[in-house]
């Protein structure tokens, strides 16, 4: 290939080396844009959810974001590319400033990491920052960067400060997590005791008040919020703002005062891509400064002297949790397995001296951060006092309007009537912030509740409303008669979902049923199974239930999507024109044959040992056999005159089983708040509040006396429920004698509104 490798005179031909560089610039711009989009997404979520401490969801400290930053900051570490023009030199500065910006955005995310993960990520970030600083200093010395040297020096200083702040904050994460987790467990026990008090009129309203307590605990101990309200996070916001202002000063001065700079002629190796990189990184810096700047402003707003004078009295005291991890490290042995006694003593002394130095450095960083916060407070005090005065005026006007319209605003003020001070979890030195956190977050759970109310399961609610036997819930007893002979010596345990899915399969197979009624039933059961799964995940999560629950999930997938029970086409069966009795007999025979067909292959031993371990298809066939035989016996005893009446009875039975399962919701909803780690606890409480909003009407439909008086252990499992009912009324588990329901669906339901 002529022209590549060596020239004619033997010298290396490097004429094409710089041709791909503009495309590398495009790659840098793409990485910068990805950082900007991720930071913008976090800012948007913070504004949308009114979390002005801006938790990190999309842009947190991890391997992916570190790689993106390394690509985006390539211009600042490029040692030998010529950068003669104004936009070239500004792009160098913008790359360095972007590093400061992303470090300020990263800070809260370290609260969600494990100790080893924090260590590795901080070390990786430190290597990146030190590399960038060394390369920038090299370029200042070689002349690659020949303007904006003061701005570069200041930005490098901010890089080091932000790295020190990140490291300082990381040292507190293990201690604050452990401390707040202990406090949460104690407060959670107190809240659960108050939840167990069944006095009151409305279950939904009582649960809403209880969840407000759980939300306040989960929110105030959220590791990201704990870091977001710390002194170091406030200081990092101020430094990020300074970095952005430095870049803005350089850009404005270079364009408005061009005579003060002397740029060179010529073109950069990056050519047209440098301008694109500059614009993209300026946008990224502006967008990325939003979150740190708001954290800084909100923190000093909380600490404003006119609002929280007590908060300023301990400004220059370093709380114990800042250095507790280092103090504990001093007391831990090194565990050296080599060297003699003198060597080990020397190593332990060196470790103690090193940790003492780290403790002093840590205290210095914290004190410096508090000084920055105090300076920020007094520099912004006039503005903060004015804004507080305006807010008080606005509040007083709202108060007058609320007095005039007292009834209309009563529902939305639920959170304000509660004393949530006991449930605010705070660290040492944050006592003055308790009232401020309540003031700003006391009603923050209400939007989630009302969002849930807008997504209530209307088809399920209509199914429950049309069944008048919900007070007695006879369907739990009647779907499976003890008079039906078992196919094996032992029966597998039942879960809530498998009988519902099997009954729905039978209802779909009945002849002469209009399609819109079948579709409405499927939609209702689909919505009901969402809540059944939540109940089972909390109350039926033992190993013996896992196989049965999986069988119900597998079966429902085929019934919902294809109208098939195993390999039987249910709608095709319904269209064959057979009588309901013949359909039931055919389903029972198919299920029985399936059961025995699968038995000799691979499950003979399992059948004898533990029915809960039967293969899924065997569990499905056994359920269909028993339920279809029970319905067939019921059909003969009642002498149903049409498929419609049997369909109505099946729908009522499904509604009764779902209603019995959903009586567990008052117990399950608070349990959703405790089944997660401290990092995910706030999200769990949010889901529980949404669940309550969706289920509010369901709780009102279910009998109030049943919700309050039933034994929780009896309600939890369908088999326990049936055993209890059998003791009270043994005849009910034979052939039921009365029909206590109305049509679960009718022709008037054609225009059912589905959300």
TrEMBL record:
Q: Which GO terms describe its molecular function?
A: carbohydrate binding; kinase activity
Q: Which UniProt keywords apply?
A: Kinase, Lectin, Membrane, Receptor, Transferase, Transmembrane, Transmembrane helix
According to the record, the segments passing through the membrane are 24-47, 59-77, 119-148, 154-176, 276-298, 371-389
Q: Does the keyword Membrane apply?
A: yes
PANTHER family recorded: DUF4220 DOMAIN-CONTAINING PROTEIN, PROTEIN, PUTATIVE-RELATED
Q: What is this protein called?
A: G-type lectin S-receptor-like serine/threonine-protein kinase
Species the sequence originates in: Actinidia chinensis var. chinensis
């Amino acid at each position: 290939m002529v022209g590549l490798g060596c020239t004619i005179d033997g010298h290396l031909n490097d004429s094409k080396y710089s041709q791909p560089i503009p495309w590398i610039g495009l790659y840098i711009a793409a990485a910068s844009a990805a950082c900007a989009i991720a930071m913008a997404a976090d800012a948007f979520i913070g504004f949308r959810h009114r979390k002005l401490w801006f938790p990190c969801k999309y842009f947190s400290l991890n391997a992916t974001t570190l790689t993106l930053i390394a690509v985006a900051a390539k211009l600042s570490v490029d040692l030998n590319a010529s950068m003669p023009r104004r936009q070239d030199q500004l792009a160098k500065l913008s790359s360095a400033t972007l590093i400061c910006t992303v470090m300020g955005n990263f800070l809260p995310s370290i609260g969600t990491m494990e100790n080893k993960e924090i260590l590795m990520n901080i070390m990786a970030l430190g290597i990146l920052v030190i590399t960038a600083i060394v390369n920038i200093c090299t370029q200042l010395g070689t002349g690659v960067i020949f303007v904006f040297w003061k701005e570069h020096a200041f930005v490098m200083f901010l890089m080091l400060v932000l790295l020190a702040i990140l490291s300082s904050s990381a040292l507190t994460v293990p201690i604050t997590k452990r401390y707040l987790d202990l406090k949460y467990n104690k407060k959670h026990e107190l809240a659960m005791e108050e939840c167990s008090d069944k006095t009151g009129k409305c279950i939904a309203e009582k649960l809403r008040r209880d969840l407000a307590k759980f939300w306040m605990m989960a929110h105030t101990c959220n590791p990201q919020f704990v870091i977001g309200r710390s002194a170091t996070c406030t200081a990092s916001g101020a430094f990020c703002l300074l970095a952005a202002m430095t870049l803005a000063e350089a850009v404005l001065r270079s364009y408005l005062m061009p005579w003060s700079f002397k740029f060179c002629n010529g073109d950069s190796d990056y050519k047209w891509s440098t301008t694109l990189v500059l614009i993209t990184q300026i946008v990224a810096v502006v967008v990325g400064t939003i979150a740190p700047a708001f954290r800084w402003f909100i923190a000093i707003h909380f600490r404003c002297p006119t609002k929280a004078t007590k908060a300023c009295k301990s400004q220059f005291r370093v709380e114990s949790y800042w250095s507790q991890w280092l103090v504990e490290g001093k007391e831990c042995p090194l565990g050296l397995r080599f060297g003699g006694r003198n060597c080990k003593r020397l190593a332990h002394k060196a470790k103690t001296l090193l940790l003492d130095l780290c403790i002093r450095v840590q205290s210095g960083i914290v004190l410096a951060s508090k000084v920055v916060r105090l300076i920020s407070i007094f520099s912004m005090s006039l503005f903060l006092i004015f804004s507080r005065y305006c807010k008080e005026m606005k509040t007083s006007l709202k108060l007058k309007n609320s007095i005039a319209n007292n009834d209309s605003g009563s529902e939305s003020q639920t959170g304000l009537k509660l004393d949530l001070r006991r449930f605010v979890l705070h660290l040492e030195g944050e006592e003055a912030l308790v009232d401020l956190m309540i003031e700003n977050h006391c009603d923050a759970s209400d939007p989630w509740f009302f969002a849930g109310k807008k997504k209530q399961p209307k088809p399920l609610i209509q199914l429950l409303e049309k069944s008048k036997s919900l007070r007695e819930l006879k369907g739990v007893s009647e779907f499976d008669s003890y008079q039906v002979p078992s196919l094996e010596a032992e029966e597998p345990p039942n879960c809530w979902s498998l009988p519902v899915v099997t009954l729905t399969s039978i209802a779909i197979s009945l002849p002469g049923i209009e399609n819109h009624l079948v579709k409405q039933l499927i939609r209702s059961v689909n919505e009901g199974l969402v809540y059944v799964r939540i109940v089972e995940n909390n109350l039926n999560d033992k190993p013996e239930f896992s196989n049965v629950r999986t069988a119900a999930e597998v079966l429902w997938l085929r019934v919902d999507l294809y109208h098939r029970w195993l390999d039987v086409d249910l709608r095709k069966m319904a269209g064959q024109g057979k009588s309901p009795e013949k359909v039931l007999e055919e389903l029972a025979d198919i299920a029985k044959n399936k059961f025995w067909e699968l038995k000799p292959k691979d499950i003979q031993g399992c059948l004898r040992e533990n029915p809960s371990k039967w293969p899924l298809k065997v569990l499905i066939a056994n359920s269909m056999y028993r339920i279809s035989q029970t319905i067939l016996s019921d059909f003969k005893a009642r002498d149903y005159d049409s498929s419609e009446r049997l369909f109505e009875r099946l729908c009522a039975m499904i509604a009764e089983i779902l209603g019995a399962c959903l009586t567990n919701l008052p117990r399950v909803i608070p349990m959703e708040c405790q089944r997660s780690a401290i990092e995910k606890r706030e999200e769990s409480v949010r889901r529980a509040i949404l669940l309550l909003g969706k289920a509010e009407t369901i709780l009102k439909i279910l009998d109030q006396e049943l919700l309050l008086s039933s034994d929780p252990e009896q309600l939890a499992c369908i088999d326990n429920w049936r055993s209890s009912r059998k003791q009270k009324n043994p005849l009910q588990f034979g052939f039921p004698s009365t029909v206590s329901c109305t049509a679960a669906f009718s022709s008037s339901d054609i225009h059912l509104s589905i959300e």
